[in-house]
Amino acid sequence: MTTITANRYDNHHHHKPSRSPTVEFLPDGSHRHLLSSREDSKRLLPGLHNILSHWLAESKDDEAHERQREPLVTSPPKDLDPLASFTDKYGSCTDVLHYGSTSSVRLHAKKVSGRGAHSAKTPKQMYAVKVFRHSAPSNLTDSHLLEQRILSHLQGQPNIITLIDCLHDERNDLCFVMEFCAGGDLQNLIVQAGRLDPIESDCFFKQMMRGVEFMHEQGIAHRDLKTENILVTSSGEVKVADFGNAEWVDQQSGCTPRRSRKKKATRRRMSGTIPYTAPEELDGGDDSFLLPQEDESYDARAGDVWAAGLVYVAMRTGHLLWRVACEDEDGGYGEYLRGRREEGFSPIDGLGGTRCRNVIYAMLCPNAHRRITASEVLRSEWIYDVVVCVDHLK
């Protein structure tokens, strides 16, 4: 198995972080999360950064292409002057949370107007701003437009990251202004705790699956679900983030459009994502893969379910089950396949009750056509009984 570490996947990581309580169990049987707000952490929102997924779509089906070409829609807070500068609207940058080859994520803080507005203790409204460098209007690509279009389409579901505004800053770079999730991401929570409490994991998982179900019902596949892309507020509300790899799925055929339709061997470098990638999406070794051939039936939503199952196992165990879901390249995955056929696979069998294990096995079915769906996960006896901490989600 592969231990999750802060910046890499390391099979030789022996030190286990000391567990600090992040969940409190209440007398009525419910719970609440004890997640600190760390505004100055540089690892709070790596899930908003999309360093790996900015490879361009050369060709798309007509319907998806038209949707991507729609103009950018802005929806700033209603009390803001539309002619105000970026800094006037969203305050100044207090930190760079992540920096990559094509984009960065900045933490912005704006003082709340009112009494004591110039005091050092004045409350501040925090924003996470994803900045696409060199993205002046003349340089906007299908990739930018598709990500913004998909995010806008998914707004209103409480477990999808909120896109507050989409505009250009003073440098004329395209910016996505997002809600700030002070609890960080699941990756950091797992690293800090070693593994999460089962009740805590179940709560986060159910919220995540609600977000996944919603996007799938809207005909959207995320295509990059992993612990780094699942954010948490300080109160324990889960937000699915980073839609830079997301795609529209044809609702009638259930097929995902090919981004590599004109480039027969377009490769994506997915070094941080391969452990979560479903076997039907893999073709090749090392740290890259090829999309399946055009004539294959391919619904990327099944890949999301596979990745979500691995996210749950990572929360519960602090480990990833394998580096790559290919029997020829990873002995751990070969062990899993043999366990499915024979006496079971101990990392999953050790999760607890039969209802939980059965759902995870169904999510990690190697045959994509037989894999359980997000809606079926939520309708399972196990998840139906899971208590969600956030009141308005109950």
From TrEMBL:
One of its GO terms (biological process) is autophagy. One of its GO terms (molecular function) is ATP binding. It holds the Pfam family Pkinase. It is found in: Preautophagosomal structure membrane. InterPro entries: Atg1-like (IPR045269), Kinase-like_dom_sf (IPR011009), Prot_kinase_dom (IPR000719), Ser/Thr_kinase_AS (IPR008271). Keywords: Autophagy. This is Serine/threonine-protein kinase ATG1.
